[in-house]
Amino acid sequence: MDFFHRTAEEADAHGKVLPALTPVHACVPKRRRICKTDLATAEAAAPKIDPPKSELLVRPPEVSYSIRSPRCLHFLPTALESKVILADHANRMLRFYTIDGCSYIDTMPSLHGYKHSPLAISVPPTNIHLLDGEDTGDLYIIDSVLHPDKAEVRPQFEALVWRGITTSLASHRFWHCDILPLPPWITHHRNAFVYGHALVGDTICFSICGSQGDGTYCFHMATREWSKAGDWLMPFDGKADYIPELGLWFGVSENLPCVADLSGVVRGEEPPPEKMRIWAHDDLPEEWQPTQLFNPRVISLGSGRFMVVDFLDTMEFDKDCNEMV
């Protein structure tokens, strides 16, 4: 089937003459003069629309009369000094860091359960982290106040880990937030408190005071399995930092600087007394007394150096009761 004529003669033979088009005069409606009276009437009949406010009113935050507000923001340190994880009351987590004077924020996976008083255990990055350009390392988060009997409905131990969907090295890796189990020896406890914790190699050691007894437990990160070190507590209150130059762990014990050897805890060995020392506040004035509101902190400065941050109250001697008040 041919849709076009092959020659001009063939097109002329089959062509048709169409009538010429004549212009049509546009019909313009009669215009009506609108007077000011009509405009006033129309304006009065039109609905009144309030213009938007020119300023945005920001209300001040709610005042909390308790020291621990349920809407507080937790800052969780990572293995890199320039990066920190922020966790809010809605379980959302953000990573804040600075590069060359510029600040950046990354979104991270959310926690599965709210942590009232979280403890963060930062793990140095592995070769897989560094290969993908992630120098933060994994982060393990546990609530310092535990309710083991509610662990199934309220996750209390989680990990922010860099991994793929599968175990294959070719799998695309990204951040995951995994729920981890609590020590099986305390699952029947109604309440428990994390007394101290320390990173010993590839194992996290926790000293937990339970409602039915105390003990130190070891969480092996590679297998995600627990082992029990013994029915005793490590000498530290809170976190203990490892100093590779000295082969010892430094922290706080009963509000005083403390050092101990925790290398045998993973094997179930209690820290030896000959490698443990607690310093006393012998050089403080008598009127300076440790406050009960805040616990002291031991901050590692690197190269085996530490800074002890203590909170003290100024007391006065009362002659009537013969004591410091």
Please describe the structure with a list of short key phrases separated by commas or semicolons.
6% helix, nine-stranded mixed β-sheet, mainly beta, single chain, 3 helices, four-stranded antiparallel β-sheet, 325 residues
Secondary structure: number of strands: 23
How many H/I helical runs? 3
The separation of the N and C termini measures 112 Å
Helix content: under 10%
What's the shape?
A: elongated
Strand percentage lies at 35-45%
Mean pLDDT: 82
Can you write the helix and strand succession as a string? HHEEEEEHEEEEEEEEEEEEEEEEEE
| Unreliable residue runs | 25-29, 63-68
User: From the alpha-carbon coordinates, what is the Rg to the nearest angstrom?
Assistant: 36 Å
Tell me the major beta sheet. Answer: 9 strands, mixed
Alpha-beta content class: mainly beta
InterPro entries: DUF1668_ORYSA (IPR012871)
Structural overview:
- The model is unreliable at 25-29 and 63-68 (pLDDT under 50).
- Strands 7, 10, 11, 12, 13, 14, 15, 16 and 17 form a nine-stranded mixed β-sheet that branches. This protein has a four-stranded antiparallel β-sheet with strand order 1-2-3-4, with no helix packed on it.
- The chain contains three helices and 23 strands.
- It has helices at residues 8-13, 36-45, 127-131; strands spanning 74-77, 83-87, 93-99, 102-108, 118-122, 139-143, 145-146, 157-164, 173-179, 192-200, 203-210, 213-220, 225-230, 238-243, 248-253, 256-260, 277-278, 288-290, 297-302, 305-309, 312-314, 317-318, 323-324.
- By secondary structure, it is mainly beta.
- InterPro entries: DUF1668_ORYSA (IPR012871).
